[in-house]
Amino acid sequence: MIMSIFKIQYKIYSMYKIHFFSDFAGHILFPVLINVLFWKGMADSNVLDYSFVDLMVYIIMANLVMSLSQVAIEQKLSNDIRSYKLAQQLLIPVSYHKKVAIETISSGLVRFLFVYLPLVILILILYGKMNLLFFILGIISILFSFILNFLISAILGEFSFWLTEVWGIAAIKNLVFVVFSGAMFPLDILPVNILIAFKFLPFSYMSYVPTKILFGNYPFEGIFHSYIIASAWCLILFCIERNIWKFGLRKYESCGA
Amino acid sequence: MNILVQSILYSFKKSKKYKINTISWFLADIALYSSVFLLYLLLGLSLKSFGTYTKVQILFYISTYTLVNNIYAVLFSEGVSSYSSNIMNGYFPYDLLTPQRLLFGIFMKNINFPPLLSTPFLLGINIYLMNTYSPDFISIILYYSTVLIGAIAIMLIFVIVYSFQLFKFRTEALSEVVLQLLELAEKPDTVFPKNVKNFFTFIIPAFLMSALPSRIILKNISVVELLWIYLSPAIYFIIFLIIFKIGIRKFESEAE
């Protein structure tokens, strides 16, 4: 089943070339371009701890990591819940969440293998920061980022048991993530106490921490701590998601011929 | 006027019916606007200035952006979305048959009440920040009229983009890109090179949502920029009309 879904996702991704364009332009090209120009101007009028080149490379990589781990299943869940589809899915002998997870992972994997991974490796090689150990540790961190995104997206989608529309909340979620994940700027330009506070929130594990690890700019004990905190957030969000699903299903009704 | 009152009342009744929906919109809106303010407050702890804007000026700049965004969400967001989806799903002939001007009719039917709940909060912040510059009455009138014009200009940009659907183009990719580009409005314009700044003022009017209205109160707006604010809706509307008139000849739909 996993391979079949992966093949379908690959076909979808390669068939709608315009989606490839919008995905790349909307999530990578323009955000990076805007951020590069913005921070170039900011660096001219402010003293930053980063050189301009370091800042640019960070922003490009952080946006790549963010796009790679971004999950947007809330609309699918919402459509399924609000239509007859969820009832149909619940009747088939495959776990609904497992199916959604495999679909999401395989579509993410297609984007990862064909677009993002080559770009990540290229940047690391050009920037002279390619280190196999940190690369593997970085990929593990990206995996946590993916899980966090998946769980938050699922929670928002499952709000459809009570709400008629979730697209507004989903759009806001994306903006809030971009702001606080470190995709817009490296979080360590902020005062130390604020950076410490950010370490206890899930946002920095979506872009800032994986990016720093990939560049080998994160101490080993910091990496270990980041895995623990990200795992704790995954567990908390998983419990929340399970409870929302359980309460939502109690309320859910569907009929159809 | 009657139709405007009726549509607001309808939207209000709808929001009362789906209370949890309205509350979630309100909370999400507040979270969004607070996070943008918080971002610049945090950056202000580490940075001296934002282009030519001081730390206080940038907060006023952001409050202008959030206000324009909010007005757009109340008056136009649902309408723009309905205009786009109706062309695609075959309901557009019904819009064409209504005895009102097309866009007016669509927007009146689709006023979005929930974002209106966060308007007092945003307006309060905006007035508080504006008072630090002690603006005169004329500037205040000019400022709020340009805030409304900013929202109208963004609406026109989106209806121009979606009008290409009349030619059987799928516009998702283009609208996604335009959306990304408009998010630039949140960033201070003077940070960007002059060409980029001009592009996002006169072609894609992102800075019409933030920089130009703000500079009326900050008293550093040029005559050309002020003229552009008032001319831009007319120009974008003419572009829309041209595209629409050609597109509607090519548009085909079957509806019962």
Describe this structure in words.
The complex is a heterodimer of chains A (257) and B (256). The two termini of chain A are 28 Å apart. With 257 residues, chain A is an all-alpha fold. Chain A is globular. Chain A has eleven helices and no strands. Chain B is mainly alpha-helical and 256 residues long. Chain B has helices spanning 2-17, 19-46, 55-89, 92-97, 102-109, 119-131, 137-163, 172-182, 194-203, 211-218, 223-250. In chain B, helix 2 (19-46) packs antiparallel against helix 3, helix 3 (55-89) crosses helix 5 (102-109) and helix 7 runs parallel beside helix 11. The two termini of chain B are 31 Å apart. The model of chain B has no long low-confidence stretch (mean pLDDT 88). Chains A and B meet through helix 2 and helix 8 of A and helix 2 and helix 8 of B.
Helix-strand layout with pairing:
The complex is a heterodimer of chains A (257) and B (256).
Chain A: H1 2-15, H2 17-45, H3 52-69, H4 74-82, H5 85-91, H6 96-126, H7 132-158, H8 167-180, H9 192-199, H10 208-214, H11 220-251
Helix pairs in contact in A: 1-6, 2-3, 3-6, 3-7, 3-10, 4-7, 7-10, 7-11
Chain B: H1 2-17, H2 19-46, H3 55-89, H4 92-97, H5 102-109, H6 119-131, H7 137-163, H8 172-182, H9 194-203, H10 211-218, H11 223-250
